[in-house]
Write a structure and sequence with these properties.
This protein has helices at 19-32, 43-47, 58-75, 89-114, 139-145, 148-153, 182-198, and strands at residues 79-86, 121-126, 129-135, 156-159, 163-166, 169-175, 204-206. With 219 residues, the chain is of the alpha+beta class. It has one domain (17-29, 43-205): Reverse transcriptase/Diguanylate cyclase domain (Alpha-Beta Plaits, 2-Layer Sandwich), CATH 3.30.70.
């Protein structure tokens, strides 16, 4: 692998699935992308839209990431992947219930969407986890995009008209390199995200600044 760190260097305390599971899912997706046998299944899912947040889902994310990697290879243009987690979302769910948590996810999804460029691809890949594909973007420019973090910190949202809360998120960035497989890029961004969470949350960490070993649990 060319990402520069091994599977056993990741923290295992968090709730996110292991990188190996993501790699396996990506390979399976590549093998079954055109499978006609899947057509009767959840139409919103197959169309690539997450029903709750009305933004693209994990399946769409895999497909577009492969497309953008192929384009970056052809044109030698930069490509950055951002993985984003809402901070302490489990606590939010515990405090306001699942319905309130769903309202938070809807708000956050649209907040990200309206604060990025039209060409950026925002996907919900599970729970409070989001992936953002940033075409024609190097890691320095991508970090500048995530100044929206400070904007979010200033917003107080009302949940079910009975609870107000400020939100924050953690973000890990990785830039595509010509020697990378798709799973290398995902693994590097995932590692950066764990570094952001281990460093105290509410921050953006790029792969070049993330430590090579994250040993502490980052629930």
């Amino acid at each position: 692998m060319s990402a520069g760190f091994s599977q056993n260097q990741r923290s295992t305390g968090g709730h996110r699935p292991p990188v190996q599971q993501t790699k396996t899912a990506l390979r399976q997706f590549c093998n079954t992308l055109k499978s006609a046998g899947e057509l009767p299944l959840q139409f919103a899912y197959l169309a690539g839209i997450a029903a709750l947040t009305e933004i693209p889902n994990r399946r769409f994310y895999y497909e577009r990431l492969l497309q953008e990697i192929a384009r970056a290879r052809r044109s030698s243009s930069p490509l950055t992947l951002a993985l984003v987690d809402l901070d302490r979302f489990k606590q939010i769910n515990d405090d306001v219930g699942r319905r309130g948590g769903d309202q938070v996810l809807k708000f956050f999804s649209q907040f990200i969407r309206v604060n990025l460029r039209q060409e950026d691809i925002v996907c919900r890949i599970g729970g409070d986890e989001f992936a953002i594909i940033l075409p024609d973007t190097n890691v320095d420019n991508a970090a500048a995009f995530f100044e929206i973090r400070s904007k979010l910190n200033q917003v107080e949202i009302s949940i079910d008209r009975r609870s107000s809360r400020r939100l924050s998120f953690s973000c890990g960035l990785a830039v595509f390199r010509s020697e990378y497989l798709p799973e290398d890029l995902i693994e590097e961004a995932d590692h950066s995200l764990y570094s952001a969470k281990a460093g105290g949350r509410n921050r953006v960490v790029s792969a070049r600044t993330a430590p090579s070993l994250v040993s502490q649990s980052v629930h």
